[in-house]
């Protein structure tokens, strides 16, 4: 998983952006845990289990079943975890934001 620090100016709550490649990482669940661990400077074993926040099996199924090459858009999931907001999309991007207002396409929140 490659980390890139991003400050786009319009997304000032974005802390870090990570690239997820399932060929290089065990799973999207591991990628999320590692990303939040790195951003919060908390060892993974000291964080609450991700399963307490989101159905990890369902998350894996969604991302493995999404056909990026034939899909007309980008699939996206976001959820709060360990004082952050995590946004994952089907292009392999994991973004970690400061906890705060939730993001959605229509600005209505999650």
UniProtKB/TrEMBL annotation:
InterPro entries: HalOD1. It comes from the Archaea. Residues 25-97 form the Halobacterial output domain. This is Halobacterial output domain-containing protein.
């Amino acid at each position: 998983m490659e980390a890139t620090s991003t400050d786009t100016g319009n997304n000032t709550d974005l802390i870090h952006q990570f690239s997820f490649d399932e060929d290089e990482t065990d799973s999207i669940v591991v990628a999320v845990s590692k990303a939040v661990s790195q951003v919060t400077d908390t060892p993974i074993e000291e964080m609450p289990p991700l399963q307490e926040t989101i159905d990890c099996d369902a998350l894996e199924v969604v991302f493995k079943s999404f056909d990026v090459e034939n899909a007309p858009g980008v699939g996206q999931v976001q959820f709060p975890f360990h004082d952050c907001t995590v946004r994952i999309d089907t292009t392999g991007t994991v973004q970690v934001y400061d906890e705060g207002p939730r993001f959605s396409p229509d600005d209505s929140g999650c």
